[in-house]
């Protein structure tokens, strides 16, 4: 089965969508988390943000999420990480800079119970403070 052909009149007339922001990926390797832990950090009521500039020329924004057993059992830790991912999806890109790694660390009790808008404002505040230091 072959895919349907598009009409020739529309080819080349439309411009491809241009992404106004750099791509974003998730940190997976322990070494990246350890490098971020040695860099800048800013604590807020709902989370701790660690950030570092990679200086490798890659404009990709990389984000990692961590919740320790102090948060609670696996269900609570996963819920806290889901909330952090949702906050990043809504609030990270306006304040993030290309070529940086960010690690969000959940706080016991606060990350799960805090209002979502307050978590968003915590992330925006932390990003602003981190980048004011550089």
3D structure, described in words:
- With about 130 residues, the protein is an alpha/beta fold.
- It is built from four helices and five strands.
- It has helices at about 30-35, 75-95, 110-115, 115-134, and strands at about 25, 40-45, 45-55, 60-65, 100-105.
- The protein is globular.
Query: Mean of residue pLDDT?
Result: 89
Our Rg estimate from Cα atoms comes to: 18 Å
Strand order of the largest sheet: 1-4-5-3-2
Order of helices and strands: EHEEEHEHH
**What is the rounded distance between the termini?**
55 Å
User: Quick one: biggest sheet?
Assistant: 5 strands, mixed
Counting DSSP E segments of at least 2 residues, the number of strands comes to 5
Kindly estimate the percentage of residues that lie in beta strands according to DSSP: 15-25%
């Amino acid at each position: 089965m072959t895919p349907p052909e598009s009409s020739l009149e529309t080819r080349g007339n439309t411009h491809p969508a241009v992404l106004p922001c750099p791509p974003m990926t998730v940190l997976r390797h322990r070494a990246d988390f350890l490098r971020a832990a040695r860099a800048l950090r800013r604590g807020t009521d709902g989370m701790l943000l660690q950030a570092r500039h990679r200086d490798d020329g890659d404009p990709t924004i990389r984000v990692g999420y961590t919740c320790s057993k102090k948060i609670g059992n696996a269900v609570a830790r996963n819920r806290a990480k889901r909330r952090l991912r949702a906050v990043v999806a809504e609030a990270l890109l306006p304040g993030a800079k290309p070529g940086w790694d960010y690690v969000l660390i959940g706080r016991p009790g606060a990350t799960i119970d805090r209002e979502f808008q307050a978590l968003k404002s915590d992330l925006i505040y932390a990003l602003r403070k981190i980048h004011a230091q550089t």
